[in-house]
């Protein structure tokens, strides 16, 4: 394997989300958020799509976000481990409902603000740059009840208030911001991505794209606020990325692959270029979607484009127009993908495609000509501790090594990549399945799918491997 020389200021690190790590779901004045209504088990995916039986937790269901891995109380211990690995950055999110419990208080919750002050101080003390996402699947439930969440224009102003509040509070501590995590997830898991709940007879596409418009305007206003409040900071958007390959060279397959990619690029086209692309306008016409835009929206979008493109990459996807081929779909992939015969799959049905990382990075670079930031990449697997407590996760090391190498190739291709915050440097609750069994971390957390365990932390084999990678600035991927 070729060794790579990454830039000396490259932001090596890891990424977690408030709702998958913090726990303490109603502690410190926090309000209920949408992820607090996602149980484990068979109902989870339907709820994430918008079929929500209750806007309060149901007795007898297990909600893994309520305690998660208790990062809220244990963050100092965890940050010490990240510092031991040599992290230059940690991507975290702020829970909107910790700052404004219902989303529309006149004044923010000081206890919530202080928690993030303490968290950022601890990171900075350990030489770790905070990379902060404003909205990571965390709409306050009150806003779902009262307004129908992002389908209502009211949320634009409420989000702007929230963004301005935290930007002002942390302007001297945070240099790297992102607006919405995986904003394109709104189309695929609309309750998770945007707090959208549907009832029989709803025009689902109309509601989703109207909500998307509101999020895009809110994102642009957050960019504007960041540039005004913290002019030395930079703020980006965030895409759930991974190119769609046509299953064959049949032009029908190739065109469908382009259309599938555009479903996601649509959001970033607006956030990065500042206007709705022609293909989106045609899509609205062809599907009789009437997206309500207020006077001034076009100017807001045009004048407040993002500084960089953050993206997650776990796997590529494959698409076909052949009904017979489409019978062979992979399991577990939110976006839906035909099984690619050239690629291996994880236990959860995700294809393993390191070259796809390079392809995706180059495509984003060619399309936007802005700095990129790989803010999620990782391998979910079942880790089995040995009798002596050791965890030999060579499969994870292999996956990450090959993806970091692909990222190194992309940098040599001329792609400007700011950093790499791999997903789940410590085991956290899986967003898609709610499991703890699906682990990503270099650090094992003693907790199972039923919420049992000591929450004790321990190092896996990959811990020291990643420590070596960072110490060598990516020139030693063998560990």
From TrEMBL:
<dbReference type="InterPro" id="IPR033132">
    <property type="entry name" value="GH_1_N_CS"/>
</dbReference>
<keyword id="KW-0326">Glycosidase</keyword>
<keyword id="KW-0378">Hydrolase</keyword>
<feature type="active site" description="Nucleophile">
    <location>
        <position position="376"/>
    </location>
</feature>
<dbReference type="InterPro" id="IPR018120">
    <property type="entry name" value="Glyco_hydro_1_AS"/>
</dbReference>
<protein>
    <submittedName>
        <fullName>6-phospho-beta-glucosidase</fullName>
    </submittedName>
</protein>
<dbReference type="Pfam" id="PF00232">
    <property type="entry name" value="Glyco_hydro_1"/>
</dbReference>
<comment type="similarity">
    <text>Belongs to the glycosyl hydrolase 1 family.</text>
</comment>
<dbReference type="InterPro" id="IPR017853">
    <property type="entry name" value="GH"/>
</dbReference>
<dbReference type="InterPro" id="IPR001360">
    <property type="entry name" value="Glyco_hydro_1"/>
</dbReference>
């Amino acid at each position: 394997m070729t060794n790579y020389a990454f830039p000396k200021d490259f932001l090596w690190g890891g990424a977690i989300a408030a709702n998958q790590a913090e726990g303490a779901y109603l502690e410190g004045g926090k309000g209920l958020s949408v992820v607090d209504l996602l149980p484990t088990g068979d109902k989870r995916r339907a709820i994430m799509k918008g079929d929500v039986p209750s806007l309060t937790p149901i007795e007898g269901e297990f909600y893994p976000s309520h305690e998660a891995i208790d990062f809220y109380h244990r963050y100092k211990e965890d940050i010490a481990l990240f510092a031991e690995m040599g992290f230059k950055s940690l991507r975290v999110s702020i829970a909107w409902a910790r700052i404004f419990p219902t989303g529309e208080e006149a004044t923010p919750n000081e206890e919530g603000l202080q928690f993030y002050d303490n968290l950022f101080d601890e990171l900075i003390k350990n030489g770790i740059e905070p990379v902060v996402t404003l909205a990571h699947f965390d709409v306050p439930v009150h806003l779902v009840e009262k307004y129908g969440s992002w389908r209502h224009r009211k949320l634009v102003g409420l989000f702007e208030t929230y963004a301005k509040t935290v930007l002002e509070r942390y302007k001297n501590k945070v240099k790297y911001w992102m607006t919405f995590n995986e904003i394109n997830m709104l189309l695929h898991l609309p309750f998770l991505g945007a707090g959208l709940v549907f009832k029989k007879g709803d025009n689902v596409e109309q509601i989703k794209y109207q909500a998307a418009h509101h999020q895009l305007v809110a994102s642009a206003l957050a960019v504007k606020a960041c540039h005004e409040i913290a002019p030395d900071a930079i703020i980006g958007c965030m895409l759930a990325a991974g190119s769609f390959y046509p299953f064959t060279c049949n032009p029908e397959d190739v065109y469908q692959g382009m259309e599938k990619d555009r479903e996601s690029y649509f959001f970033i086209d607006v956030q990065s270029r500042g206007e709705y692309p022609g293909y989106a306008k045609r899509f609205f016409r062809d599907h009789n979607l009437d997206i309500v835009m207020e006077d001034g929206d076009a100017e807001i979008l045009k004048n407040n484009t993002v500084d960089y493109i953050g993206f997650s990459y776990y796997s590529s996807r494959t698409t076909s127009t052949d009904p017979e081929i489409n019978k062979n779909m992979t399991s577990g992939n939110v976006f839906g993908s035909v099984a690619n015969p050239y690629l291996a799959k994880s236990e959860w049905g995700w294809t393993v495609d390191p070259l796809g990382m390079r392809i995706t990075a180059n495509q984003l670079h060619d399309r936007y000509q802005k700095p990129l930031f790989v803010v999620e990449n990782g391998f979910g697997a079942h880790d089995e501790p040995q009798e002596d407590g050791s965890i030999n996760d060579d499969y994870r090391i292999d996956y990450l090594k090959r993806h970091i190498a692909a990222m190194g190739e992309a940098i040599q291709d001329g792609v400007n990549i700011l950093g790499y915050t791999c997903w789940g440097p410590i085991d956290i609750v899986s967003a898609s399945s709610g499991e703890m069994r699906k682990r990503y971390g270099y650090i094992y957390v003693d907790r199972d799918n039923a919420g049992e365990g000591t929450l004790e932390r321990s190092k896996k084999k990959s811990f020291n491997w990643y420590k070596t990678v960072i110490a060598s600035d990516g020139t030693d991927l063998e560990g």
